[in-house]
Structures are given as C-alpha cells and as structure tokens.
Specification:
Blueprint: H1 13-22, H2 27-46, H3 56-63, H4 79-87, H5 102-116, H6 122-138, H7 149-160, H8 165-184, H9 213-221, H10 228-243, H11 247-252, E1 258-259, E2 264-268, E3 274-278, H12 281-294, H13 316-329, H14 338-350, H15 355-362, H16 367-370, H17 378-384
Antiparallel strand pairs: 1-2, 2-3
Length: about 400
C-alpha cells in the first residue's frame, strides 16, 4: 500500500502499513485505519506536538473532531498504531482509551490484585471482573463504605432469580473475593464477605446434560467445512466432544502441544496443570485439516485463531461462541462448551469406560466429581437395582 502521510508520524507510515498487513486486515480495512492515522499525524502537526508527545488525551481530542459515516470512531481503532509506536520505541503511553471512571480504575486495581497477589488464571480474573463490574453498576452513586449486609443480600437475591445455580455460585465466589479485597484496601471498614449468602446446591442432585448421538451428528453437520471458518469450528467441536476439554483449554492449545508422532496432546488445565492425553484419530484429522487448509499462515502459536483481524488466538469466550452458534444452527437451542464436556463423559461411559478412566480424561481432581455420570450409565444402574418382589421367574 502506498500511503502519503505528513506530520510527526510520517517516518513510521510504511511500518504502520506493514503492521496492519501482519495483523491480517484486508487492504480496504487497512486503508481506513491508515486514513485515521494520517489524520492524527496532521492533527499533531497543527498543534506542534511530536510523536513522542502522543498521549491518550490528545488521541481523545483528535477523535472528537472526526466523523465517519455520521459516527465517531472509538479509541480502539487506533490501539494497533499505539502498540506499533511503542514497539519501535516512540510512544510511551501503555494504552489508548477514554478517560477512565473511578469504577473502571477500581476494577483494574482489583484485577491486578487477583493476578499479582492471588496468581489466578486470566479466565478466572475475567469472570471475577464481570461480577464486580455488575455489582458496582447496580450500586452506582453509592460509596462502598455506605453498603450494608442487607445491600449485599438484596443484590444476590435479585441476581440469582434469573441465572442458573452454577452461575449463582460463581457470582457468590466473585463477590466474596471482591469484598475481601475491599476490606484489605480499606475501602470498607467492616468485613462483608459473610453477608454473601450461600447458594443452595445438593451435591449430585442433577444429571449431566449430554447430547445424544443424533444431536452430536446434527451439531457437527451444522459446520460448512468448505470455508476456513467452518474447518476451524468443526475441529473445535470435535475436540470438545471427544476429549471433553474446557473452553479455556481449547483456547490455550498451542501448535507445540500436539505430538503428531506419539499421537498425544498436552492440555493446560485448571491450577496451571499440564496433562498429556491420547489424540483420537478423528480429532487429529480435523485439526490437521484446519492447519493445512484453514488456518492463516501466522506467527502466533495458538492453534485456533480469530476469523477477523486482528488475527490472534481465540479466547475462551470465543470458543463458547463457536459452540453456541453451532447449536443454534443445528436447531438444538443455545448452549455453551460445558454441555459438550458432559457429552464426552457420558459417551465414554456408554462405550464401556470405567469412572476412573473418565475421571482421568476429564482431569477431575476427585472421583466424586465424576460420580455424577454413573447416573446416566444405565448398564451399571441395572446391576444395582433389586427386582420387585414377585417379578422374578
């Protein structure tokens, strides 16, 4: 692409264009981003600002003067440029963004605490962050030190009316974590973690909601494997159904984790554990087809990449969206990746695997977690049932 840029950012115009190509943007979309960068460079020149003087405040002021098709561009549209300028040692600001509110700053502090002090996984930090954002939004306009135990109880009661038991448990855990952080930071004067009510849950009361063989076939058939996107989604679904991986484990899967010669795959699970699992032939075939014909030639080491630029590794939420889209296309309703984990567990039992073997594949820490699948193993249950008196002949 030939770009004409004037102003303090002009020396890096060609590098910016190359960065956009590397990120996987089409020529048309890349030109739109470069047009915005050229406008920013002229804006800086008119104000006598050097490239080193670029700041989020100046970017926000510039964006306030721009209109594209009647709408104002967002700071995220220049994030790629700031990343590039930082990489070459020009820009010093770490992020591009609008001035952050007190609520956003508090959530960022909490997320940093979870990462540095608690050492939690990124997906757990993201989940807790969503809980805190919801909690602070509901109580907007009130200081944390004004909240009482009754406020905490009312929040949980109102939110739990519209979510599942599992989601309610996550909500309670995240809220307790944040209230503990708030006490340590001096944001509240009295401990409130005890005000978060426990979620009623009877261990093993439910049934694992796996799919039938016909539903699995419909789910896989919903993927059009001619385009690259369909090849990627099909490989993800087969991986989830056959090995029962979690969404975060699929997202974390890297090219180096697949040992093609040994027929094994390395799975990075909860608690930063690593397990080696056998790679079933159909799973390997689906992944290989995506790598050969569907995956873009990219330097990223993640196996599964986003379909749209910037082409980066697929996130756990992205994996969940793949499953939801496929389930809706197949006419099965809308569900997430954990439904396929249940499917893997029930299919293994039905194929004759023992509970310890299922626990090993699903990487359960205790056999008690796997025991719920015994309730759908009708062969095993029949052997435990005492015949009704008088029915034996």
């Amino acid at each position: 692409m030939t770009m004409v840029m004037v102003g303090p950012l002009a020396p890096w115009a060609s590098g910016m264009a190359e960065r956009l190509t590397t990120l996987g943007y089409t020529p048309r979309v890349a030109e739109l981003h470069m047009r915005l960068a050229r406008g920013l460079s002229r804006f800086l020149q008119q104000r006598g600002v050097t490239a080193e003087g670029l700041s989020p405040e100046l970017i926000s002021r510039f964006l306030g003067t721009v209109r594209w098709s009647g709408r104002r561009p967002t700071p995220k549209m220049l994030a790629w440029m700031v990343d590039y300028l930082r990489d070459v040692g020009v820009a010093q600001e770490p992020i591009v963004g609008q001035p952050r509110s007190e609520q956003q700053l508090l959530v960022e502090r909490y997320r940093e605490y979870l990462m540095v002090e608690r050492g939690l996984e990124p997906c757990t930090i993201a989940n807790y962050g969503r809980v805190v954002t919801l909690f602070l939004t509901v109580h907007a306009g009130r200081g944390l030190d004004e909240l009482t135990a009754a406020d905490i109880s009312r929040f949980m009661t109102s939110q739990c009316q519209q979510i599942s038991v599992r989601a309610a448990e996550r909500l309670a855990t995240g809220l307790r974590s944040f209230l503990g952080f708030a006490l340590v930071e001096g944001l509240i004067s009295a401990p409130l973690t005890g005000a978060v009510p426990s979620v009623a849950r009877w261990s093993g009361a439910g049934l694992p909601r796996g799919l039938t063989s016909k539903q699995v076939a419909a789910l896989l058939a919903s993927c059009d494997r001619r385009p690259a996107l369909g090849q990627r989604d099909y490989a993800i679904l087969v991986l989830l159904i056959r090995l029962g991986l979690r969404a975060a484990e699929v997202s974390a899967l890297r090219l180096d984790d697949i040992d093609w010669r040994a027929g094994e795959i390395v799975v990075r699970g909860k608690g930063r554990t690593e397990e080696r699992l056998p790679l079933p032939a159909d799973v390997g075939t689906a992944i290989a087809a995506y790598l050969r014909r569907g995956r873009p030639r990219r330097p990223e080491r993640e196996v599964f990449l986003r379909a749209c630029a910037p082409l980066r590794g697929l996130t756990p939420d992205g994996v969940g969206e793949v499953v939801r889209a496929a389930s809706e296309r197949a006419g099965l309703g809308s569900f997430g990746s954990h439904r396929l984990r249940h499917t893997a567990g029930t299919q293994m039992l039905q194929a004759g695997a023992s509970l310890p073997e299922v626990a090993q594949v699903l990487r359960h820490r205790t056999i008690a977690t796997t025991a719920i699948y015994a309730k759908v193993d009708h062969r095993a249950l029949r052997g435990l049932v005492t015949p009704w008196p008088g029915t034996q002949r």
